[in-house]
Amino acid sequence: MASVFTWQRFRGLTPEIHLVLAGTFLVRMAYFMVWPFLAVILYRKFHLSATSIGMMLTCASLLGAAAGLLSGYHSDRVGRRKVILAGCALGAIAFFGLALAEHPAVYLLAIAGVAIGNALLESTSKALLGDKIADARDRELAFYVRYFMINAGVAVGALIGVWLGLSGKQWAFSVTACVYVGYWLLLVAKLRDSAPRAPQAGRARPGFAAACGQVFRDRVFLLLLLSNVAMAFVYANFDSSLVQYLTRSRAPQLMAMISTLVAVNAVTVIFGQFPILRMMEPLRPRQRIVIGVALMGASQLLFAAAPVSSLAAFILATFILSVGELIAFPTFSVEVDRNTPDHLRGTYFGASNLYSLGTALAPVLGGLCLDHFGGGALYLGLAAVCALVALFNRAASAEPALSPARQAQE
Questions:
Q1: How far is 206 from 73, CA to CA, in rounded Å?
Q2: Could you name the domain of life of the organism this protein comes from (predicted)?
């Protein structure tokens, strides 16, 4: 059987798919040129507390999760193109709003607009890949490339933001808005819609409540979703709680240590993703998920055991976490695609966007655990979460390869 990870297979994807993949990179790059500095602007401009800023971002994440579910369902009814264009336009308007805002309430509305716009883009773009690519192995490659584009965009965008001196500059949000506008224009010119998939003969298209009911009664999908929420929660603690843990523990050369760990994570994911996944290609996707989750759990045990004075131990833990991440996260999308009925593909991918609940809860719950129990307890708890997820997915490997919904369709 031909390998998934070949240049010929990638070149064989249609121009529309290449556009969506390149757009994913551009949007993420533009987003991370300015978004990491949002908290700095809110503090300098309005002297908001860390709690207030955190609540604004958490509320935006929750709105984005809900919007992903709604937009996925509507993309099944009206087509992907309209929803993707709406998400791109909303993102552009919201970033222009951030560039012009002079009141915290306006910032809150704009932040919510960014979260909702990105949710529309995220869930519907993944559903579009499933619609436009007939071959299952080509689709698998597209999902892995998309994840690579996200990480490359994050790394490049953050570097450009620092290099161009965009940190703390409110007008810089307009640069990101212009990138969204450019992507929107390309989509208008190049992206063709595919007709919404009809349900099986003799069945009416379900309403929103019925479609959600079908999605959340799908045990295979629900297991994947809960696993993804848990893993997002574990990984998000690397971005939020680890910094607080090292700060409170008075780690030597703190800023250099944090920068090194972030760099190790970025370099590992960007340069290691395809070589590692190619080595794991003979394994089934669920087996890859189990291995990825197990590696993430091992990294949490090392974080718990390592003395904060040992940079080498934290680099090793970060490397193991990064390898687990690059295996597990894109494979979740591959498994969702394999277990999704065609006429509800958008609804399924919209529901899968609820994984961001884990990201939203991590700063709050991680901070509470640090305050009351300490870093060791936090990382042992995160390792236990990984162990449970690995066990659940190991058990699921014995079940049918496709969900009941997909089996009924086929």
A1: 10
A2: Bacteria
